[in-house]
Amino acid sequence: MAGGRSARAQSPDEGTVKEFTPEEAVDFALKNYPAVRASIEQANAARAGVGLARTDYLPRADVLWQGNRASRNNVFGLLLPQAVIPAVSGPVLSTTSTQGVWGSAAGLLFSWELIDFGTRRARVDSARAAANQANDQLALTRLDVAVATINSFLTLVAAEQTVHAAQADLERREVLAKSVHVLVDNQLRAGADASRGDAELARARANVARALQQQEISRAALANILGIADARVEVREARFAEMPTKNIPSTSKLSTHPLASAQDARVQELRSQVRLLDRSYYPKLNLQSAVYGRGTGANTDGTFQGGTNGLGIDRSNWAVGLTVTFPLFDIFSIRERKGIELANARAEAARYDQTIQDLTGQLRKAQASLDGARKVAEATPVELQAARATETQERARYQAGLATLVDVSDAQSLLVQAEIDDALAKLAVWQNLASLAAAQGDLGPFLQFLHQKPQGGP
Hints:
Blueprint lengths: L16 E4 L1 H11 L1 H21 L5 E11 L30 E15 L3 H67 L5 H35 L6 E4 L22 H21 L5 E13 L18 E11 L4 H70 L5 H36 L3 H8 L7
Helix pairs in contact: 1-3, 2-3, 3-4, 3-5, 3-7, 5-6, 6-7
């Protein structure tokens, strides 16, 4: 995706610290996250299934050679088809013998289904539908991983903004605590002010520690989704500090969303199974030809040939013909299987309708959330400006003896909260832009939006 991808974001083996832009992070995750690789291989397997189904059009050729040593006793009578008792050919003799002789057989059987009444085509179509479903599932997995990557990226950016605000608050508390101690040492303020200042300073340090803790947790989460959990990741994207002024293009074609496409592909796969069953209750017409030969060490008069006689081929034959087979009573099982597949197809079609409903709801909620986030982001600069003015005024009033330390502490608490609110409000707009793009099924417009020059920019 990224044309100017950072060289440090190419491979997890190039170092322990890696820096990513949002686009680089998404591209890297799509190449390295195991779930994506698993979906790719599943799609490859499904595509190979199409090729496998096409091999049904090819003829079949079987080669056989057999050597044996056995007795040659035979009887008149019927033997039902089975796979246990070997067949014996030759005349029925008046005497029996347990003496063994060598026997051999070799042959080639060529079979080709001339007419299948659409069965093989239906089987290929079914395999192709399964491949389409696997491809759509791959697209859905890629979207899920891309969305998770952007969310983790923005969460880390938000954690870093919180750390910056907490550190700025700590610096202000340190300056205030020093000035309070000077005033207390000169007996210009009560000793309780020094204790209160130390308490506020300790709380600010604890807030920084908690913010750093959350930052490292968020960093580990991003590294995990990138597939490099043992590396340290850094993020860079200056535009997140700005307020986006435009929306990404909207779409009403939710049927192209990967989730909807995957569900529709599942419906089509089941319908292809129904069509395959429709083509199953037809005769099978096979062209067959054979070339074969046999050898034996037994004579028709009951005598035996010695040595290795019988291991070689003594008599050979050839045959060409047509074979028609028709499974008469398969109609009952086919009818029931068809009923099962039709019911499953209707169930998946209902789930497709539910998917479209859910996606429509998600899209509307994402748009409403974005509109609300913009309004919040428009209000927080006013909050921040007022909080800064309040903190400055309260410090000045405290120095002049017109305000208490509690007033200054409250003003500083208000300021750090306003700084966090302002930073996170802008990030919330970006987050909701990404959510809107995800609800439409494509993060591409969001990533392209990040590359656009801001208004008034160079």
